[in-house]
């Protein structure tokens, strides 16, 4: 459904310690997201995960290589096609506080994309429906709250409801639970599973935490210094990692979850 083809990304540093040098954040990365799948992208800090996420939502353009969506090259789209693409392929960020505006209510955050995209149905009804979808129930209780009046997990749910408002086909979630308490992480990951199961939305789950990856993803790619070093079904890769690097990531993952 969505894939990167030999994508490379270089950042040219103009100023500072590395002024005049190029940083290669990704080299020849090819990954694909299939319809209705939960794909994992894992790697240590600095391995290029966020750069790849931003290229997949076209916040950054690749230095070379292509992004293909539904069989067409979208690497250089602009204008209305880009606007439509950004409805179909949306991103959820790590910090649910930074992604919400502290001066606006929960209701405002969810209404806004509906208004901007000229939603034709009953907007109030749709807001309630979206809040129920992310289990912020009853909606009437949450609508008038402000971001600082709800918990981190609830803020992430509000952001996810906002993303769902535009009917995305793929959600790219960049470390969406790493700022949340352990007890809340599983709930949010369950929500992503539910979103895939019930609405058929593909999810790209990006993290350095191999434990949570094993809970929800079907397949994974392992990124190291901007290069894909391993890929396969999550079960296979975690049971028989071929790379030392992957083994180290597995060992480094905390395991606070009791498997029953
Ligand atoms: P991750 O999300 O896996 O931690 P990133 O994609 O954020 O990795 O970063 C990959 C590499 O690219 C790092 O070396 C980082 O310093 C560099 N990088 C990322 N964004 C920029 C940028 N806007 N300008 C310069 N270098 C960047
Ligand atoms: Mg990152």
How is this structure best described in words?
- The chain has 260 residues and is an alpha/beta fold.
- It has a domain at 2-96 and 169-252: Rossmann fold (3-Layer(aba) Sandwich), CATH 3.40.50.300.
- The chain is 38% helix and 25% strand.
- It contains 10 helices and 10 strands.
- The chain has helices spanning 49-56, 79-88, 106-116, 123-133, 139-143, 152-164, 182-199, 210-216, 234-239, 244-252; strands spanning 2-12, 22-33, 38-43, 64-69, 72-73, 89-92, 170-174, 202-207, 219-224, 227-233.
- The two termini are 35 Å apart.
- The relative contact order is 0.17.
- The model has no long low-confidence stretch (mean pLDDT 92).
- Magnesium ion (MG) binds next to helix 1.
